[in-house]
Design goal:
The complex is a heterodimer of chains A (741) and B (277). Chain A has 741 residues and is of the alpha+beta class. Chain A is built from 23 helices and twelve strands. Chain B is built from seven helices and 14 strands. Classes of the chains: A alpha+beta (741), B alpha+beta (277). Chains A and B meet through helix 12 and helix 13 of A and helix 2 and strand 11 of B.
């Protein structure tokens, strides 16, 4: 070890000039031990390390040489015994590896080897830094030993130790030195704990002050320059570089040179955005945590069902009751084979949400209908059937509200009529009568066969959708709007949609169900009671039941021919209902209102009955879209046809899927909720201009007479008056003459 | 989505309802790896799936070191054998502009439509009806290019531009924060910037030239209408869906590095968008 120390003070200067302009190296340069004041923390670390253990000896020669060279600020001789603590520091770093003074000659050989450690900087340069570090440490130690121990959070705890250890690494030939966990985390330069240099300005006036060498002076100036704080903030380049290197050494990213700029930026950002207090919650994450809490509630075992493991035999027995909730996971598995559907995690959450729904409402059967995407939120839709008699309570409330409205209107009309009789001029009544409202279908029939519940996300409460009216279906066919995700949002469109988004959603659900709910041929069959076919006007049977003898159709046949699939939901007629209703039949109420209605009856034409395809029609009968079949069938996996499922995809309603495998089948819809049309959407044209009241003499305004006319009239009247007086005089004269005779 | 994180990406993008069956996933994992090796791509993205009547097209794209360089597109019908598609040119775009309707699923299928072309015969100009045939492959190329130009997006900060020109993947991208993730301005179009030069100097002053070198989504037409931003899984995932090309889903888990987009749809533009908002 005799050789390295003397050339070291010169070597760094050569190497520093030949160094690449890497920031890290600039930092190293600034670590020059001659700058004693700014490294209280490092010294602290060295002192801490001292306590870890003892070590082999350092070459005392180098220390002495450095002492004489660099004892500019502190002065004093470094006693021999003080060398030992330094040695101990190193050993602490190495984890107890002994440093043999006899192996002093090693560094020479190792120095010539360009050994690159993880930071990519040739270690030989680090060695020289190491030496300088040593010298520096010893100086600080000798002067202000107790002073530094007050500091508690050293900054460059490990780089100092690291550098030292690097040197000794050669001795042990341990390239994994850098990974030694005893280094501990590098702490950031926290300004709060940073030691202000001014406190270190006290020097022992009693000590000698040797002349500072020019090189040290230059280094000192460079460091002072680096310590300048920036204009816009309190950060100096020096501190920033310190932080940057700490971060790099802590995180050890691969190829740090290429990401240096990003790291630079990140370090600067972190300076101004320190990690929050551990006691305070992150405000941004608040909604996330709330949602997680709600979903956690789903997983808790409520009354009547379990989400987790059993807690005893009794409870297990209670569990094995048939629930109305279908096996969603099974359906999700089959749909996944087809490449459709939500992820299995999401499906499980939906299953739990449905279970919650079943517990809250009196539900007989339940099914996951699908998901309708919206602009701000999406809807998860569940199709349920209530138990008998349960749902009528809500229906009655709705009807009462409607009737109340009608009564008020009737009163209004009567008052209006009274007023009219008093007026002299009778205001002509309009002959326009609104088209009769088609009554909506009863619950459990036709389009209202099932009830639908929606929620935005599993964990949120379920909302019930109202029944759909034919008017809403008719209007829904004319418009095409995205769903926003809020049920009470208005649907602004032309023709104006009678209802808000909840009604529009329900109408679309009805249309999609009627068009795309299919099942394998033979799964459903008509009931045994027949005979009422003709009375319903040829509308066909509207009830079916499961066929207990259904054997299942082989998957290949299902894929090949569309005739193996049938619709099991009733087709919705253009009227908006599934069963046709003649709007003119309800005239009982109208007759009571007055006689004028009878006139209106004359103009109404006979309405034709609308007929749709009967239930259980096969798909092969469906109308084509532009010469394309409205359905596409696929085998889920062509590589293993023995185990695949048959998948049918609708081309008319993109997003509607059905799978069938053996005796199982299921329908699902995930999409935006709109029909596919090859042509662009054409909004409905505004209605034709309504006819105005025919102009006739009774409503035509008369022109006011002009002044000339009035005068002429007046003159004529006077003449007539004068003429009348003359006649009277003549008559009197005649009478007088007669009397005289 | 990156082929290396295919499984996780598919799981995160599954909110739109379309995904891949397990057999397809398995074959994709293998075949995309081989594609990367054979064509020497730096990154391979699984772009998505175009649904046809008879068969579906699976599309992948290969990227070189420079992320904004033109990407190479490959298609496959069975996720195992991939064929390179020619790059899109203006001619192909003009040709396929007339073709409407669904994709058939057969690359050699030809769409026919009649055009009235003016043919010069000597001095007279005739208007003849010419039957133009467009192959489905050409149509595929141009549709994929249109979708890429219009709606392929990445979050801000995922790429950075070096002073030498090429843009690279930013390895220190830690994800957007929750508040940033809900804004349209934090997402950029994954293509060369078109509108950036039109910005005023005042706006440009706030931009960071190494990160903000692409167009953001804020200025897409119709404004505030062509994207739907949603948080799924209780704020743990932000999903952007394009309304102009329905079927394109972009997902990003805030504060993590996971992001990507996938297109699963019929390959038709939604021209009714203004009516539907």
């Amino acid at each position: 070890m005799g050789d390295p120390p003397p050339p070291n003070p010169e070597a760094p200067s050569q190497q520093s000039s030949s160094r690449r302009g890497s920031q890290a190296q600039a930092q190293r340069r600034s670590w020059d031990p001659s700058q004693a004041q700014a490294f209280p923390e490092e010294v602290q670390q060295a002192l801490l390390n001292q306590q870890r253990g003892s070590r082999g000896s350092r070459p005392s020669q180098e220390l002495r040489a450095s002492q004489t060279n660099l004892r500019w600020s502190q002065g004093g001789n470094l006693p021999e015994d003080e060398n030992l603590p330094l040695y101990q520091a190193e050993e602490g770093i190495m984890g107890g590896v002994e440093y043999q003074p006899s192996s002093a000659g090693f560094p020479l050989q190792f120095q010539t080897r360009t050994y690159l450690d993880e930071s990519g900087i040739p270690v030989e340069e680090q060695t020289t830094d190491l030496m300088q570090q040593l010298q520096h440490l010893q100086q600080l130690q000798q002067s202000q030993g107790g002073f530094f121990q007050q500091l508690e959070s050293p900054v460059y705890q490990d780089p100092g130790a690291n550098v030292l250890g690097q040197y000794s690494m050669y001795q042990t030939d341990d390239p994994q030195f850098m990974q030694n966990t005893e280094h501990g985390p590098y702490l950031r330069d926290d300004p709060a704990l940073r030691f202000s240099p001014s406190e270190m300005g006290f020097m022992n006036f009693g000590m000698e002050m040797p002349e500072p060498q020019p090189r040290e002076l230059a280094v000192q100036n460079a460091k002072a320059y680096l310590l300048q704080t920036s204009i816009s903030c309190d950060l100096s380049l020096y501190e920033h570089l310190v932080n940057l290197l700490t971060k790099i050494l802590n995180q050890r990213p691969e190829d740090p040179l290429s990401i240096l700029e990003s790291l630079n930026r990140t370090t600067q950002w972190e300076w101004f955005h320190p990690k929050m207090d551990t006691l305070r919650n992150d405000p941004e994450m608040q909604p996330t945590y709330e949602m997680a809490e709600k979903q956690k509630a789903l997983f808790s075992r409520g009354g009547g069902g379990g989400g987790g493991g059993g807690e005893g035999e009794q409870e297990m027995e209670e569990e094995v009751v048939e629930t109305a909730v279908p096996n969603i996971m099974e359906a999700a598995f089959y749909f996944e084979q087809a490449g459709v559907g939500l992820s299995s995690v999401e499906s499980f959450r939906i299953f739990l949400a449905l279970k919650q729904l079943v517990e809250q409402q009196p539900i007989h059967t339940c099914r996951f209908w699908g998901k309708i995407l919206g602009l701000q939120r999406s809807y998860l839709v569940a199709e349920v059937e209530f138990r008998e008699g349960e749902e009528e309570a809500e229906e009655e409330e709705v009807e009462e509200l409607m009737e109340g409205g009608e009564v008020v209107e009737a009163h209004g009309e009567e008052e209006g009529e009274e007023d009219e009789e008093k007026a002299v001029d009778v205001i002509p009544k309009p002959t326009w009568k609104p088209p009769p409202a088609i009554p909506k279908e009863d619950s459990r029939t036709g389009a209202n066969k099932y009830l639908y519940f929606v929620c935005n996300e599993p964990g949120r409460p379920w909302t019930r959708l109202p029944h759909v009216t034919p008017a809403q279906i008719v209007h829904a066919r004319k418009i095409k709007k995205f769903f926003t995700g809020h049920l009470d949002a208005p649907v602004i469109s032309y023709p104006p949609f009678p209802g808000n988004e909840a009604n529009y959603l329900r109408a679309q659900i009805a249309r999609i169900s009627a068009a795309t709910h299919i099942s394998p041929l033979g799964f459903y069959q008509f009931g045994e009671e027949e005979g009422d076919e003709e009375e319903e006007g040829g509308a066909g049977r509207d009830s079916f039941e499961e066929n207990p003898d259904f054997e299942g159709i082989p998957v290949l046949e299902m894929v090949d021919s569309l005739a193996n699939w049938v619709h099991h939901m009733q087709h919705i007629l253009p009227q908006g209902r599934c069963t046709w209703v003649n709007p003119l039949q309800k005239t009982e109420e109208e007759e009571e209102l007055g006689e004028e209605e009878e006139k209106a009856d004359e103009g109404i034409e006979e309405v034709e009955q609308e007929v749709g395809p009967p239930l259980l029609t096969p798909l092969s009968e469906d109308a084509e879209i532009m010469h394309l079949s409205p359905w596409t069938t696929r085998l889920s996996c062509t590589l293993c046809p023995q185990y695949s499922v048959a998948v049918v995809r609708s081309n008319l309603w993109p997003g509607a899927y059905t799978y069938a495998s053996g005796k199982k089948f299921e329908n699902l819809y995930i999409g935006w909720g709109h029909k596919y049309s090859p042509d662009n959407f054409n909004p409905a044209l505004p209605a034709p201009i309504q006819q105005e009241y025919p102009s006739g003499p009774e409503i035509t305004e008369m022109n006011d007479p002009t002044v000339e006319e009035e005068q002429a009239l007046k003159a004529a009247q006077e003449q007539a008056l004068a003429a009348a007086e003359e006649e009277e005089e003549d008559e009197e004269e005649d009478e007088d003459e007669d009397l005289e005779d | 989505m990156d082929a290396e994180s295919l499984l996780l990406s598919l799981e995160l993008a599954s909110g739109s309802g379309q995904g891949l069956s397990p057999d397809r996933r398995a074959s994709l994992l293998t075949s995309l790896l081989l594609v990367k090796r054979d064509y020497r791509y730096d990154r391979v993205l699984f772009w998505g799936r175009i649904l046809g009547i008879v068969a579906d097209y699976y599309i992948a794209q290969g990227l070189s070191e420079d992320q904004l360089a033109p990407r190479k597109t490959l298609y496959s019908l069975n996720c195992t054998d991939w064929s390179l598609l020619p790059p899109a040119t203006e001619e192909t775009m003009a040709q396929t502009a007339m073709v409407k309707g669904r994709f058939m699923g057969d690359p050699s299928h030809e769409y026919e439509h009649t055009e009235i072309q003016k043919v010069n015969e000597g001095e007279k100009i005739f208007e003849e009806e010419v039957v133009v045939q467009v192959k489905e492959e050409t149509r595929l190329v141009s549709i994929i290019d249109q979708i890429d130009q219009a709606v392929a997006i990445i979050p801000r900060g995922a790429l950075f531009k070096t002073p030498f020109g090429p843009s690279n993947v930013n390895r220190t991208f830690e994800g957007l924060s929750l508040s940033e993730a809900k804004k349209l301005s934090s997402y950029f179009h994954f293509r060369e910037a078109i509108d950036l030069k039109n910005k005023t100097l005042l706006e440009k002053a706030d931009l960071d030239p190494s990160l903000d070198f692409m167009d953001s989504l804020e200025h897409d037409i119709p404004k505030a209408g062509s994207w739907s931003i949603q948080m799924e899984r209780g704020n743990a995932l932000v999903v952007l869906r394009s309304l102009l090309w329905p079927g394109l889903t972009f997902y990003h888990a805030p504060r993590t590095k996971n992001y990507g987009y996938i297109y699963v749809g019929t390959g038709e533009k939604n021209l009714d968008l203004p009516f539907m908002l």
